[in-house]
Amino acid sequence: MTKHLLVGADPERLETWIKFPGNSLCRDCRATCCSLPVEVRLKDLIRLGVIDEFEAGEPPKQIAKRLMKEGIVGHFNQKSGIFTLQHHSSGDCLYLDQKTRLCTVYANRPDTCRNHPQIGPKPGYCAFQAKPGRR
């Protein structure tokens, strides 16, 4: 039986996503998941090194204001306490290298990224798109 990958999945159309077979798929992907919103909490911001344990005791709204000004956070939901990381103008995550398509903070990446695709818009599925020249 030949496996066919759905090349060119649309992140906005969940029906185009494919069942995630494991991390081996990531090697040939252009990191489409890195164009999805990345929700983070205070512990993620500490892990990323953009705030420290001391600052985590400050009001989250104040932290959000500073991180928005610095271009790290694009949105803060005060009710849930969830921050959303800023994206490049291309729509990619702030921490995605634009040339290599690799995460520049992989060892310290947020829980949202660590748990994708098990948790996300379509659990167990990903919006695979082949890297150029890998089709």
Written description of the protein model:
It contains 3 helices and 5 strands. It is an alpha+beta fold and 135 residues long. It is elongated.
What secondary-structure arrangement, pairings included, does this model have?
Layout: E1 18-19, E2 39-40, H1 42-48, H2 60-69, E3 73-77, E4 82-85, H3 111-114, E5 125-126
Antiparallel strand pairs: 1-5, 2-4, 3-4
Q: Estimate the mean pLDDT confidence.
A: 89
Query: What Rg, in angstroms, do the CA atoms define?
Result: 16 Å
List the secondary-structure elements in sequence, H or E: EEHHEEHE
- Amino- and carboxy-terminal Cα gap: 19 Å
- Name the strands of the widest sheet in spatial order: 2-4-3
| Number of separate helices | 3
Morphology: elongated
Low-confidence segments:
1-6
The percentage helix is: 10-25%
- Estimate what percentage of residues fall within beta strands: 5-15%
Question: How many DSSP-defined strands?
Answer: 5
Output the structural class. Answer: alpha+beta
| Biggest sheet statistics | 3 strands, antiparallel
Question: What key attributes describe this structure?
Answer:
disordered N terminus, three-stranded antiparallel β-sheet, single chain, 11% strand, two-stranded antiparallel sheet, alpha+beta, 135 residues, 3 helices, elongated
Report a brief summary of the structure:
By secondary structure, this protein is of the alpha+beta class. It has helices at residues 42-48, 60-69, 111-114; strands at 18-19, 39-40, 73-77, 82-85, 125-126.
